[in-house]
Each structure stands twice: as structure tokens, then as C-alpha cells.
Amino acid sequence: MTSDDSRRLVVLRHAKSAWPEVPDSERPLAPRGRRDAPEAGRWLREAGCVPDLVVCSSAHRTRQTWDLVAAEFGATTPVIHDARIYRATAGELLGVVREVPAHVRTLMLIGHNPGVQELILLLAGEADGYALEQTRTKFPTSAIAVLRVPGPWSSLEPGAARMTDMVVPRGAKP
After folding, report:
1. What is the separation of C-alpha 81 from the centre of its chain, rounded to a whole number of angstroms?
2. Which of 8, 39, 83, 109 has its CA 20 to 30 A from that of 94?
3. What are the two backbone dihedrals, phi and then psi, of residue 38, each rounded to the nearest 5 degrees?
4. In contact, 102 and 139? CB cutoff 8 Å
5. Which of 125, 117, 122 is nearest to 166 (CA)?
6. Which tens digits make up the pLDDT trace of 125-171?
7. CA dist., res. 151 & res. 139, Å (int)
8. Distance CA 24, CA 30 (A)
9. DSSP label of 7
10. From CA 49, how far away is CA 12, in angstroms rounded?
């Protein structure tokens, strides 16, 4: 990060879920999701994007995604399971992010499309490489976007962030 007051927002879309005959909020991860989530955790660890705080949707598949991602860090990170993230709009997600305490330097938000994709597009006023174009096209399951945020979370405004990375980690098929 370039300034002492900047922060990093890591947005992770949950890993691929299965479609059993259960309510949407209770859908578990599919086999592919159980392979991809640890790979996302490895990428985050290697990129130095281990969060200080995680705000995660209360849906079953997002909680499972976080458990598999976190296992790759070897550390415990505080997690808030927030029901507001499930089916949230970009504006609602921005409201959740603005509530994060100022001492948190790296925040991870784990949620669902279209909300997380729209949040990234709302916040990213500029981007490195093709990250923003890729995100406009598609933000698939297990996708990770990293945004540099100037100043405290409470004053985060649309277009203020710089998108530094967009990756889609995939685990190897057995």
C-alpha cells in the first residue's frame, strides 16, 4: 500500500455451490467449490492479502468458503457473519464496509453476485492492467478482487478505490 492511511478491501465471491433441494441460503459447496476455495486461500496468503477482519454473508456456502480459505492462512482472523450481505445491493454492501472500524487495514468481504461484482465496479475508479475490464465481463465463483482504499472505511466513496488485482483461483480436478 502506498500511504499510511490506505487500506485494502479484498472481495471474494463464494466458491461454487451445489444445487440440492434446499433453500438457497442453505446450499452447500459443490465438489468444485471445495477444490477452489483452498486455492483462493493459497493465492491470498502468497499475495500477502491475509485479512485483519472478515465480513461474511450468513449463507451456508459463504461460511464454508471462508472455512476452507482460512485453513490456508494458519492463523485465526475475526469473522462477522452478517445476514445483510445475502442478496445485498452494491449500495447496501458499501454501507456494511463503511461500518468497519478504522483500525482494520485489510478487510475481506465474502458475498454473492450480483452484489459483490457491482460493489467492485462502484468503488474502482481506476485499475491496474485489465482487472476492471475482466470484472465488468464476469466475476465468477471464487473470484477475488483486491482494491486499495484511501482513508478510513467510514469515508469510502464510489470511484475512490484502485483495483490492483482480479484473480479466479481454481483447484486441480482429482
Report:
1. 13
2. 39
3. -60, -35
4. no
5. 117
6. 998 888 898 899 999 999 999 999 999 999 999 999 999 999 999 98
7. 26
8. 13
9. E
10. 12
Q: How far is CA 97 from the centre of its chain?
A: 11
Q: What contacts 25, CB < 8 A, 6 or more positions away?
A: 58, 59, 60, 86
**482480479: which residue's cell?**
166
CB 15 within 8 A of CB 33: yes
- Residue 37's Cβ-count burial label (10 Å; 0-12, 13-18, 19+) is buried
* 30 and 50 Cβ atoms separated by less than 8 Å: no
CA distance 89 to 66: 21
C-beta separation of 118 from 18 below 8 A = no
Q: Is 138 exposed, middle or buried (0-12, 13-18, 19+ CB in 10 A)?
A: exposed
The label of the residue with cell 475508479 reads 125
Dihedral (CA of 163, 136, 93, 25) sign: negative
Do residues 127 and 101 touch, judged by C-beta distance below 8 A? no
**How far apart are alpha carbons 126 and 105 in whole angstroms?**
20
Calculate the CA 139 to chain-centre distance.
11
SS3 126: strand
